[in-house]
Specification:
about 700 residues; mainly beta; Methylamine Dehydrogenase, Chain H; Double Stranded RNA Binding Domain; 47 strands; disordered N terminus
Length: about 700
């Protein structure tokens, strides 16, 4: 089996773009060990000098910075910029006036003898990161680097430095669960004890970013108290990657701890005991998605408790971890790219596998807020599992519907379950077990998990609000770098001027969206496509005339099944077309091979499209191409020969592409062909919704 490293758009989705990007960065990184062994991510507790920031000028008059005076040690002057970065300059290189001022303030400065030699007159002090960002105390040693496993010395308050244990585990003899349901009907007791926690509506100022390359990656919210952990990735070209971590109190808005660690990590789960579960996504520029770590917050200390490789010894997709969760009783759930979900329990320095089951590959399960149930996407079905008993409650079929890379969402009240598969949602009522909705959403950008706000509203991609009851793409919340939730309050990380950053809490749906929906539903012409609508079919865009009749028959059957009336004319037209593209360079490799061993091949591309056109305007579009994501080679067949078979338009697309049941009039701000255009749109800024 051969997989494609850099997959082109299939129905509008670039599946492996991130993998390819990681591969490109490998050649630009140099191996390094620039960190002093110390406590993981400790609180920065140095006091700031009382002087106000001012403009400092060098002796040439060409260079100026805004900074506060910190110290004068020998001939070296230390200044603190407003960004939090300390700068060191030789006294003789300051302007005459600034030299005198530095000498006058020297007695008030704190001591710091460390320095680095730089050619620039304003140079970062030793102890700063390679990116120019400020270290909030000593950084954690690299767990996978030689010499990085010694116990960390105390720093900050010194009250807790972490166990820093290397956990072992094995799945030998683990109980393999089958998705065999206890009942033939999916019915859960409704959870009416849900109480949503509230937050102040004001924004929270986050520490300024080190530079342009620093991006918020993930955020975790504590299940029992108003506390969140934000992880930032700092990955400038040619420099070693870093993860910066900020712990903050959501009620007071105060930062309680911050620091950084070598390599790139993303947040996975936050336990009630303060355990932060993270997975490593990059190690010195190379992929390492099989490593998980547990970090702990105790007082003002944030330290590593353990590191662990649950997929060690696995191969191919099974070695890449993609999801995890911490249950209320401390058990840990993990899922790999191959679809294996495993339940673990910590016993000393060992993780014991309690059970595992096989879900659909590349899927993401979901656990209810109370930790009682898990929703799972599997082959041709979805399932709900009781996590306390370890039994599958029931399953529901998805037969005949293509749900690539499915993500599950189960509501806090245990009343609704959704399976979102790239451009479509299937919704079930968990009290009756009935499927109540299938909604063609079109491709949705964003990697955030789906979230139920209540029985009628679902947020997709961290930004698109879907009215499930009326099958409407209601509102698009743009402008945020990333989004997570404190119960049903959206937490949006947004940037400001000079690399500033804020956390904006907004209860969703916001009042303007609800009011707009109420008015829109009064419009009798809101839906331009619904059951009973007459639709015309246009296949003149199919390049091969011999294929036109067959494709028209397939589309007629599809439209009739949806409840539409197919005619020679209609208020809305379904247009089918194919077009030749250019020769594409694609990379393929065998499963189990490293990404950098992929080889490039030239493939002639063809695009297949379906469009709904209303009043001359494109209101929905689906597309696919002919370039395969995977190749199965027969005996003695080469990759070139296998690819040659695919160098023609993908006519199967017109039979398998899902078309919507409902379409609304396009919003005024909608772009042509935008299948995710919402009725309304707001931009999240540091001042709130605009």
């Amino acid at each position: 089996m051969i997989s494609r490293l850099h997959q082109r758009e299939i129905f509008g989705c670039t599946r492996q773009q991130s993998v390819a990007a990681s591969h490109k960065r490998i050649t630009g990184y140099a191996a390094w060990l620039g960190w002093t062994a110390g406590l993981l991510l400790v609180l920065s507790s140095s006091s700031l000098p009382a002087q106000e920031s001012r403009t400092w000028t060098d002796a040439t008059g060409k260079f100026k910075i805004e900074a506060r005076f910190v110290s004068l040690e020998g001939t070296k002057v230390t200044l603190l910029q407003t960004s939090g970065e300390e700068i060191e300059i030789d006294l003789s290189k300051l302007s005459p006036g600034d030299r005198k001022l530095a000498q006058d303030l020297a007695k008030k400065a704190s001591e710091n003898p460390f320095q680095v030699k730089e050619t620039s007159p304003f140079a970062p002090k030793a102890g700063k990161s390679a990116t120019g960002g400020s270290i909030g105390g000593p950084s954690m040693p690299d767990r996978t680097a030689t010499g990085g496993t010694e116990p960390a010395p105390a720093a900050g308050t010194g009250t807790y430095t972490g166990r820093d244990a290397q956990l072992t585990s094995s799945v030998d003899g683990v109980t393999e669960l089958l998705l065999t349901p206890q009942s033939d009907k999916l019915a859960l007791p409704r959870n009416d004890a849900v109480v949503d926690r509230k937050l102040p509506s004001r924004g929270i100022a986050l520490p300024k970013k080190a530079n342009f390359f620093e991006k918020a990656n993930s955020m975790l919210v504590h299940p029992g108290k108003p506390e969140a952990v934000v992880l930032y990735h700092i990955s400038p070209p040619g420099q070693s990657p870093i993860t910066r971590v900020v712990v903050l109190n959501l009620e007071t808005g105060k930062i309680t701890a911050q620091g950084q660690v070598p390599n790139l990590y993303t947040g996975v789960g936050y336990g009630s005991d303060g355990l932060i579960l993270v997975r490593q996504v990059e190690h010195h520029g190379k992929g390492n998605k099989g490593l998980m770590e547990g970090w702990i917050v105790k007082g003002k200390d944030l330290a590593r408790e353990w590191s662990w490789e649950p997929a060690k010894g696995q191969s191919g997709r099974d070695e890449e971890l993609v999801w995890g969760e911490i249950l209320p009783d401390g058990r840990v759930l993990t899922a790999n790219e191959g679809g294996k979900i495993t339940c673990w329990k910590t016993e000393g320095d060992q993780m014991k596998a309690l059970w595992r089951l096989q879900a659909q590959g590349s899927s993401r399960p979901d656990v209810t807020r109370d930790g009682k149930y898990m929703a799972i996407a599997a082959d041709k079905q979805c399932a709900v599992m009781d996590l306390e008993s370890g039994e599958v409650v029931a399953t529901v079929p998805t037969t005949g519907r293509h749900l690539p890379w499915p993500r599950m969402a189960i509501s806090a009240e245990h009343s609704r379950m959704a399976c979102f598969g790239f451009d479509k949602i299937i919704v079930w009522d968990l009290q009756t077990g009935e499927e109540i909705r299938e909604i063609a959403t079109g491709p949705i950008s964003g990697d955030a998990a789906p979230l139920w706000l209540d029985d009628d509203f679902l947020l997709l991609g961290g930004h698109l609000l879907v009215d499930v009851k009326n099958q409407l793409r209601l509102w698009d919340y743009t402008g945020a770098e990333m989004t997570t939730f404190y119960d049903r309050t959206g937490l949006f990380v947004v940037g400001g001027p000079s690399q500033s950053s804020s956390l904006i809490p907004i209860a969703l749906p916001h009042p303007a969206a609800k009011n707009f929906l109420a008015r829109a539903l009064q419009d009798p012409n809101l839906f331009i496509l619904k059951e009973g609508t007459q639709v015309a079919i246009d296949v003149s865009g199919i390049q091969d005339a011999a294929q036109q009749a067959a494709i028209k028959d397939k589309l007629t059957a599809k439209l009739t099944q949806r409840g539409f009336i197919v005619g020679t004319s209609g208020s809305i037209i379904l247009k089918a077309s194919t077009e030749s593209g250019k020769s594409e360079k694609m990379s393929y490799r065998s499963f189990g091979e490293a990404p950098w061993n992929a080889k490039e091949y030239n493939v002639q591309s063809y695009m297949s499209r379906l469009k709904f056109v209303w009043n001359g305007k494109d209101v929905w579009e689906g597309s696919g191409n002919n370039i395969p994501g995977f190749l199965s080679l027969s005996k003695d067949e080469t990759i070139e020969q296998a690819l040659k078979k695919h160098e023609k338009p993908n006519y199967h697309f017109f039979e398998h592409c899902e078309i919507p049941k409902l379409l609304t009039k396009p919003a005024e701000n909608a772009t042509a062909g935008s299948s995710t255009a919402a009725l309304g749109k707001s931009t999240v800024t540091i001042s709130g919704l605009q």
